[in-house]
Amino acid sequence: MSLRRRTARTPQLLLAAALSGVLLAPPAAALTTHRPSPGGGVPLRVATYNIHAGAGPDGVFDLDRQVAELRSLDADVIGLQEVDRHWGARSAWRDLAGELARRLRMHVSFAPIYSLDPAEPGGPRAEFGVAVLSRHRIVKAENHEITRLSTQDPNPVPAPAPGFGEVVVRVRGLPVHVYVTHLDYRPDPAVRVSQVADTRRIMAEDRGPKILLGDFNAEPAAAELAPLWKELTDADPGAPTFPAQAPVKRIDFVAVSKGGPGNGGPHGGGGGPRGAVTVRRAWVPESTASDHRPVVADLLVRTRGR
């Protein structure tokens, strides 16, 4: 069972959208210009970044440092993990999702994993979760439940909980489904096995181009991730992402719908039917603004069948 679907379609819905977790950027950032490729697709740059609640490997909260890093990626869509929203002193009680969106002039959808009562009556709820930043208009957003082992319960058991975010963005009129996730961090893969099954079930309900962004807390060859690669292509950047100062493993991912022939990853061709997403290139920028490094991928999203 998922939380209610949230939609922001017109300026009149700005307040309602903001209250539900979808914020709209200023009009100047609402549109980007892409030229279709000769093969009939549209370029789209995406990224995933675990922002560690605004802190770097030094443990210092410095959102200016992360704003500069995110701006340098020049991505159209960014999936964020470990995002605080009035969560606590570690992030100065700030709304990181809303602040990053305003400073980068992007739309935002925030999907809380935890939403706790405010510290003081009448204050904002203390929330922690994932978010999507987008230069393109967000036309729909939903916070899905997947299996989780709560960090807020002293005796947790695996149970459905929110925090698997989904948005639909329009890229030259084409609806593109973007999902952002943060899988369980524990060495025992049992919860991640369930989370992968939940992820596949949720994504199977949608049609068209799909992009999954996230911190999977497992490396590409991990057995629990293997089912994902039946429907998705891993945009392999060829470099590790964690820990940021001297990375030794890749646990952060951009994955895209295969959609048919011609979507063979970084070296794949540009063919394929509507819904195919081709990975043109992917890379890991050097960065110590967080305890993870981001992954960036240049994609080609199909706009018509071939």
Account of the 3D structure:
This protein has 306 residues and is an alpha+beta fold. Helices cover 14% and strands 34% of the residues. The protein has 4 helices and 13 strands. The chain has helices at 14-20, 63-73, 96-104, 190-204; strands at residues 22-23, 41-50, 77-85, 107-116, 126-134, 138-148, 159-171, 174-182, 210-215, 232-234, 252-257, 277-283, 295-302. Helix 2 (63-73) crosses helix 3. It is globular and about 55 Å long. The termini are far apart. Mean pLDDT is 86; it is low at 1-20, 24-34 and 260-272. Residues 1-30 form the signal peptide. One of its GO terms (molecular function) is endonuclease activity. This is Endonuclease/exonuclease/phosphatase family protein. Keywords: Endonuclease, Hydrolase, Nuclease, Signal.
Indicate the topology.
Blueprint: H1 14-20, E1 22-23, E2 41-50, H2 63-73, E3 77-85, H3 96-104, E4 107-116, E5 126-134, E6 138-148, E7 159-171, E8 174-182, H4 190-204, E9 210-215, E10 232-234, E11 252-257, E12 277-283, E13 295-302
Parallel strand pairs: 2-3, 8-9
Antiparallel strand pairs: 1-4, 2-13, 3-5, 4-5, 6-7, 7-8, 9-11, 10-11, 12-13
Biggest sheet, strands in spatial order? Answer: 1-4-5-3-2-13-12
Q: Assembly type of the shown chains? A: single chain
The main β sheet shows up as: 7 strands, mixed
User: What portion of residues belong to β-strands?
Assistant: 25-35%
How much helicity do the residues have? 10-25%
Instruction: Report the C-alpha radius of gyration, rounded.
Output: 18 Å
